[in-house]
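User: Sequence recovery, please. Input:
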């Protein structure tokens, strides 16, 4: 009887210490910058301009615009990569901007607290914070796609922005979670150059 109580007490102490250690570790992690670091000059970056949807965004000089037109010739999205479209491998990173029309996810995330998780269509979204992009309300989050049947590549932080009923998705993905995290700052730099032209 005494051994059972002692084991229970030790187990409880281990659980509390582990949880406390995790909370301390999480609270002391440096935040990922929300914009370009000082000293990064994006003025010489190439600019992608979409007349149909009325936006433009810049991307690093050593990156490629790998956007493919759909059958109708429309470009409701744009993709930039550190490698050409034909490249494969663990070093490939893609930043994607998608014009959508699903305000439900945006509204659900805006109405949740930071670190709260919601589920929609087998995808789990964990809110990081509310912010603005190009003067419009936005929300930054992490999406967990592991329950989606089609293989989805690892992603980093994503951002949803709403303007006039339309939603703009900003994503970064690649073949390795580590390389995605390493390039999160490039994602933030690209995001900081996005603007509407009409």
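Assistant: Recovered sequence (198 residues):
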């Amino acid at each position: 009887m005494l051994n059972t109580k002692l084991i229970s007490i030790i187990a409880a102490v281990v659980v509390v210490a582990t949880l406390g250690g995790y909370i301390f570790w999480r609270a002391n992690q440096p935040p990922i910058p929300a914009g370009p670091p000082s000293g990064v000059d994006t003025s010489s970056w190439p600019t992608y301009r979409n007349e149909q949807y009325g936006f433009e965004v810049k991307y690093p000089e050593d990156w490629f615009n790998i956007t493919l037109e759909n059958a109708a010739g429309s470009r409701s999205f744009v993709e930039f990569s550190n490698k050409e479209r034909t490249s494969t491998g663990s070093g490939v990173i893609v930043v994607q901007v998608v014009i959508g029309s699903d305000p439900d996810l945006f509204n659900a995330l805006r109405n949740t607290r930071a670190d709260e998780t919601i589920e929609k269509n087998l995808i789990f979204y964990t809110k990081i914070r509310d912010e603005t992009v190009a003067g419009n309300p936005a929300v930054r989050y992490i999406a967990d796609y592991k329950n989606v049947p089609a293989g989805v590549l690892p992603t980093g932080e994503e951002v949803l922005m709403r303007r006039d009923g339309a939603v703009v998705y900003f994503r970064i993905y690649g073949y390795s979670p580590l390389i995605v995290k390493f390039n999160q700052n490039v994602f933030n730099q690209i995001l900081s150059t996005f603007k509407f032209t009409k």
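Residues 2-27 form the longest helix (26 residues).
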